[in-house]
Amino acid sequence: MRNVWLLNFSTFFFFLGTSVVTPVVSPFLVSLNAEPFLVGLVAGVTSFLSLISKPIGGAVGDKGYRFHALVGGNLLGVLAGVLYVLSALTSNVYLFAFARAIHGFSMGIFFPSSLSTAVDLAPVGRVGETLGWRGMMFSLGNIIGPAIGGYASDLIGFSGAFALTAVFSIVGALLALIAWREVGDITVQREEHEKASYRELLRVTFVSASLTLFLFAMSYAGVTTYLPALYKSLSLEQRPFGYYMMVIGTFSFMTRLIGGRSADRRGPLPVTTLGLVLLLIGYLLLNVYTLPPYAYVSAAFIGAGFGLAVPAMQLMALGNLPRRIRTMGSGIYTMFFDLGTLAGQVVLGYVAQVRDYWGVFPVLPLILGGGFITLYAPVVWGKFNAR
């Protein structure tokens, strides 16, 4: 389990490096007088590059270079942090967009190997629990990162907050190196290498979980991208949204392990359903109470739903995949999160352009509603065919 926890802590610092800029991206662009649609486009660059680099990260991991990908992803995060600082010092939107692209590429390289290695190192019968622990590291990063980023940007400016990305990514790279030295490269049995095929990714559970994740991410992008932009347009500081994300991260952290263990025991479908229901309640409450402090109630429901649904969907998608294609499967699966985030940022950016930032939030429950359809479509279809 020491190796699992080295991996978990590397994951924590990687996501700490990505989340520390979450409450800062949109306000930084607004401070440069960027239009709402441009805010969505620049924010979407990260998702786009993460999307197209996920298959590269998956292929690299399946060739036995998973720890190379973990270290490399963190080092690219260091580079992104340096470019963020330079863009802030020069007030250069294009350099900032390029830095976001580098950061997105680093996510695409890091994420598949991080996820598949957690499955590989999990004890027998405890895959969901291991994914839950890993998810807790993700959530802990989202608890601490936005709060640090929001506070740092108010205290020492945008460049100071951006510099923390590089610092945290360096720590993540060092931890991945230690784990690599202890575990060595993860290899695949020859028999499994010969029998496995990427066609197995077309299984119903994988497709259903991936489509549900797409709609999940599309709706969630409305919160992470346009809520801080709304607060900035109202002349609020960055800290209120940092606290909002801290509440999401706290409740996600509290429910991740519950979600993973419950998915091991009861199956991923009911746990995912409960998570989406809580997320839906959070979106509805956000429309009623959009501004702090009452908005933090919606953040609690969103975080709890996030924590339950994510490890359950991961188990649904990846739990039964052969090891030979698991990294590529992780890459393809998480591509749907990036694709959903990108779609949400661009589409909802158009909504914000037409209806102002306030008009984004009534759309979120409608988008998430489609996730229930993709989640249960295979069940309904199977019962229909059984008649």
TrEMBL record:
Record-level Gene Ontology MF annotations: transmembrane transporter activity
Residue ranges of every copy of the Major facilitator superfamily (MFS) profile domain listed in the record: 3-387
GO CC annotations, alphabetized: plasma membrane
Membrane topology field: Multi-pass membrane protein
Residues annotated as transmembrane: 12-30, 36-53, 65-87, 131-152, 158-180, 201-221, 241-259, 271-289, 295-318, 330-351, 357-381
InterPro entries named among the record's database cross-references: MFS (IPR011701), MFS_dom (IPR020846), MFS_Efflux_Transporters (IPR050189), MFS_trans_sf (IPR036259), Tet-R_TetA/multi-R_MdtG-like (IPR001958)
Entries under Pfam families matching the protein: MFS_1
Subcellular location: Cell membrane
PROSITE patterns for the chain: MFS
UniProt keyword list: Cell membrane, Membrane, Transmembrane, Transmembrane helix
Keyword Transmembrane: yes
Record-given protein name: Quinolone resistance protein NorA
